[in-house]
Every structure is written in C-alpha cells, then in structure tokens.
Amino acid sequence: MPMVGSGGTRKPGRKEPAVVALGGGHGLYASLSALRLLTGDLTAVVTVADDGGSSGKVRQELDVLPPGDLRMALAALCDDTDWGRTWRDVMQHRFRSRPGSDATLDNHALGNLLIVALWELLDNPVDGLRWAGALLGARGQVLPMASVPLTIEGDVRRPDGGVDVVRGQSRLAVAGTLDAVRLDPPDAPACREALEAIDLADWVILGPGSWYTSVLPHLLLPELREALCATTAKRLVTMNLGTSTKETRGLTAADHLAVLRHCAPDFRVNAVLVDPTSVDDADALRAEAAGLGAEVFFGRVGASGGAPVHDHVRLATAYHDIFGGS
After folding, report:
1. Pairing of β 178-184 and β 203-206
2. Gap between the Cα atoms of 322 and 292, Å rounded
3. What confidence tens digit (pLDDT) does each residue in 282-293 have?
4. Per-residue model confidence (pLDDT) at position 14
5. pLDDT at residue 147, rounded to an integer
6. Nearest to 151 by CA among 175, 174, 172, 128
7. What does the alpha-carbon distance between residue 164 and residue 169 come to, in Å, rounded to a whole number?
8. Is the whole-model pTM more than 0.85?
9. Those residues with Cβ within 8 angstroms of residue 176's Cβ, 6 or more apart along the chain or in another chain
C-alpha cells in the first residue's frame, strides 16, 4: 500500500499542522491548492453526491462512487514539479468525440476512468485513491465523505412562494433558491478514515464551495457531523466570494452562516475567513459568526480581474495568518 502524504497520522515533533479540508468541486480545489503550500499533513474529505456529466455517467453505469470531485481534489494536491503538473493535466483531460461518432467517451475525464479502474482492481475506494495519489505525487490524501454514493434532495422555492422537491445535485445546482437539502440515504456510513483524520486534525476547514450541495452535506451525514462537532481541532469556515448563486440567491454572507447553524446547532467554529468585497453588512456577519463561537477574519483572497475566484497564494497567506494567530 503506498504511503501518500501524512494525512490522518500524527508524527512526534511534527511542525506542520494536520489539516482536514471538506467540500467538493472548484471550492475544495481552491482551498487544497492553498493548503498544500502550508502543510503536507493534509486530508481532503470530498462529497460523493455528484450525478451530472462524466462523473454521473460513470456512477450510473458502473454503480460506484462519483469520481469527479475526488479527481479534482487529487489534481489540486499534485506535486509542483514537471511530474506532478503533467499528471494533474492528465487527470483533468477530457476527451472530445469527433462529430458523427457514437460519442461514448465525449466529455469523459480521464482521471475519472483511472480512479474507477483502481477501484475495480483493488476493490476498495480508499486504497484506489491512495494509489492514484502516489502516482500523482499528491501532497496529502483524498477520501470520500461516505462509503456509498449519496443523493441530495432539496426544497426549491418558487416565485409564487410554493416549494418544489428536486432530487439530484446536478438539478439542484440550477433549480433556483434552495430552502433546505437532505441526503439519501440519510444515515449512510461515513468513511472511517475520514472520521479518523478529523479526530486527529489540528484544523478543520469547511468551504468555500456551493453552499447547499458541496459544503452543507458534510454536516448532514450523522457520523461526519458528530465527528466535526466532537473533534478537538480548531474549525475554520471559508466564505464564498460570491454569495448570490443560483442556490443561494438573495442570501447574505451572514445568512450563509445561519444556514450552517440551523443545520448543525452543536457545530462550533473558531474562525470565519471572508473577503471584505463579498460582505455588505460586516456587523451582521460578525453577529452571526459569534453565534457559532467564531471570530471573523477579513482578507483579500480573491484573484485579480473581478471574477469570483480565489487566488491560492492569497488564500494560503490568510490561512497561515489565522493558524499562527490562533
């Protein structure tokens, strides 16, 4: 079994903090790209509810965990060498079928197929991800949040005030303003290695990412929520740069924190990191953060150019300052 990074394993005299980052998709990619500059004792815990695109097709046809967000996390952790950068690009490469073909491979990401091949050969998702991480020279480890595929179901608010129930992450992402989300199965088993990593962590990072479909699910899975509430690690919530997405239209930054508190009243937070350009009412945000037990840290962590994308060096600097200051 390859030893990838040191996530989930305490070392005597260790200087690097043990960090667990939870999320999915581009949000988790951003936090991992920053955190890998600070520590090699890094564990990504990734949502497994994706049902769209290449990942959804693989999930449906082969009855496996959706590999897409796991692939993204592995790509973020690739070593910053020619080897690592090349394998990052290989993992992210998507096939484009020629016009007129059956297009069975169109838009499939090679990394998704590689991960599933390892799962089939090793008959163990965690082992497969560790072998993939070893191939990529990953700086840390990647784990699924649950040991079985999950489905997200949500209540979507209509303009007339009514509510529609929508199933599936890909549909929820474009359905409109969400009032609540649920997991199916609601009591799915969490990944054992993820629970252990959270228990051993110095810091746990939640967000950024799609609030209802990438961030919130970690607090909806009972075993994972219990671990997040019970860990002695300090907890940091990274806010999104844009608060009014299709999922969260009309919600302020403070409302985002209120959603977390409503979902998991026992979940306490030490720090909230937010870019000042994404906050209209700083006092309301501080008040909501205080309800979680958190101090708010303001930092310019967005990339230059105006697009709501985190700059991984600025984000790493903010994390470093919070870790040292706390």
Report:
1. unpaired
2. 17
3. 999 999 999 999
4. 55
5. 93
6. 172
7. 15
8. yes
9. 156, 157, 158, 246, 249
